[in-house]
Amino acid sequence: MYVPFENLPEESKIWIYQSNRKFSDEEFVAIEKEVQVFIENWAAHGTSLEASFQLKYNRFIILAVNQEVQTATGCSIDSSVAFIQSLEKKYDVDLLDKMNVTFKLGEHVAHKPLIDFKKMAKDKAVTGNTIVFNNLVNNIAEYNESWEVPAADSWHSRFF
Predict the structure, then answer these.
(1) What pLDDT is attached to residue 46?
(2) Which residue in 7, 13, 45, 121 has its CB near the most CB atoms, within 10 A?
(3) Cβ(40)–Cβ(1) under 8 Å?
(4) How many angstroms separate the CA atoms of 51 and 43, rounded?
């Protein structure tokens, strides 16, 4: 059951998928419709999940579930991963590789393999002040407070 993202409690579980490239405006509109349909039908053991999503920067897909109403189970999580994999194939993007870093360079959102980001840190092309997307956040409260943060305040700090 879809609910507006802002209506979910802060303890709601989230999953963040980052694309290795920016979606075109046409892709973004189509993906938004597909995610909406998925969320409306997402269930755990036949019970509808109170869930929502956000699409950010034409690059991120954020899924959220209010676990106080119904917990996302292994099967429901598997179905969300299968859905994300279907988007990967359809749009020829990588959404599941956690060994990539997405960060801001001015107003531009950049995406690099972790090894390239480490090299950029070493070369001082990025610093501890560079805004990174910490996709390891677990719930909406952490997402609101700690998703877009200076690299020095995230797990990326080890590279500086």
Answers:
(1) 79
(2) 121
(3) yes
(4) 9
Would you say 119 and 67 are in contact if contact means Cβ atoms under 8 Å apart?
no
Distance CA 135, CA 138 (A): 8
Give the span between the Cα atoms of 42 and 132, in whole angstroms.
Answer: 30
Q: For the whole model, what pTM was predicted?
A: 0.93
CA dihedral 38, 33, 14, 129 (to 10 degrees): 160
Long-range contacts of residues 102-109, Cβ cutoff 8 Å, at least 24 apart: 102/18, 102/59, 102/60, 102/132, 102/133, 102/135, 103/130, 103/131, 103/132, 103/133, 103/151, 103/156, 104/130, 104/131, 104/132, 104/148, 105/130, 109/22, 109/57, 109/59
Token pair in block for residue 114: 């972790």
Residues 95 and 17 sit within 8 Å (Cβ to Cβ): yes
Closest residue by Cα to residue 34 from 99, 95, 75 = 95
Stretches where the chain sits below pLDDT 70 are: none
